[in-house]
Amino acid sequence: MNTTNNEEGCCFETQAIRTQTERSQYNEHSTPLYLTSSFVFDDAENMRAVFAEEIQRYSYSRFTNPNQTELVEKIRIFEKAEAGFAFATGMAAVYCSLFPLLKTGDHIVSCSNIFGSTRGLFSNTFPEWGVETSYFDLNQVYDVERLIKPNTKILFAESPTNPGVDVLDLAYLGEIAKKHNLIFIVDNTFATPYLQNPITLGAHIVVHSATKLIDGQGRACGGVTVGYKKYIHKIYLFARTIGASISPFNAWVLSKSLETLAIRVDRHCENALTIAEYLEQHPAVEFIKYPFLPSHPQYEIAKKQMKQGGNIIAFGIKGGLDTGRTFLDALQLCSRTANLGDSRTIVTHPASTTHSKVPAEEKVATGITDNLIRLSVGLENTKDIIRDLEQALTTAQ
Ligand SMILES: *Cc1c(COP(=O)(O)O)cnc(C)c1O
């Protein structure tokens, strides 16, 4: 609604900068913040027609707002989607993109390596409403058809995965979804729309936590879902009813962030590759996974479906749980926090924090070993990041 210059024929960087809400009567250059909960109507007839959905215009910010529209338009264009909606958080986007498409008795097939809260939704919340989920692990991607039942409605995947940084063959999963008439939903948070476009590989719906690389500076939470109109319309009606919409302020921040997404992600990826190469040759490192290192088990698939390798590295330090914790404690520059995709490099130890409640056998299946470290490479100079990692690795050994 009311975006001018959406520049669909242009390149990514140009779209990110020039997709812009229509100027107001003041002719401002940069999009202002529309911090308003509602919009006034011209007359009673206009008001009636808007409520009857005969004409489209802004009425209430729980439904839509110019800042939220601009953010969504950008992601919609990047992801080559028909429509979209923006949410308060990434999890609101995940939840609202699934719930209105499901009914009691439906079945989900999902990769087991997915974001922890999404897994909680599938394993704890949905069963209460009669929706069951079957999981496949990384070794079963090409066997996924075995899990599909007559009542399977949704195929769900994330790639690269969190925290293992595994890569799933999205084009293959897209074919399976098409063959069995499933709705294929991809959480594209780790790749961002700059590195990977799941809709071109067969996805119907793409979900983003905008809190991560899209914001890129650890400031605002947000989520965006884009996809085919027939699904997005249902998702939109549900989301506006329950009030899961993004605030105009966060939408404004995140849309501004998108103007620099390409150059930021380019540098994130360049830094991550430098650090991955450093870690790979380090004697204290037992294993390392980074999608664009030739040693990554799905390197060929990553090369095929991603433009670059992203900013997340998974590696194991020689030793056990204590070595991982000592390494974390020894860091002086890198941050110990659970976020990712920030300009600041972040290190986490999943086994003792985000994934400490995951049962032991599930941890093994999803590759969360006691010595696994997840590194979200930031935009500091790699010389400084490496110096910090080096002294912490030495202390931990
Ligand atoms: C962070 C994250 C989410 C949830 O996003 P929030 O904005 O924290 O709600 C979902 N999926 C993935 C892959 C994430 O990394």
TrEMBL record:
Annotated GO biological process: methionine biosynthetic process; transsulfuration
Modified residue annotations for N6-(pyridoxal phosphate)lysine: 212
GO cellular component, one term: cytoplasm
Cofactors required: pyridoxal 5'-phosphate
Keyword Transmembrane part of the UniProt annotation: no
Pfam families, alphabetized: Cys_Met_Meta_PP (PF01053)
Keyword flag Oxidoreductase: no
UniProt GO molecular function: carbon-sulfur lyase activity; pyridoxal phosphate binding
Keywords, sorted A to Z: Pyridoxal phosphate
Family: Belongs to the trans-sulfuration enzymes family.
UniProt name for this protein: O-succinylhomoserine sulfhydrylase
Naturally occurring in which organism (per UniProt): Myroides indicus
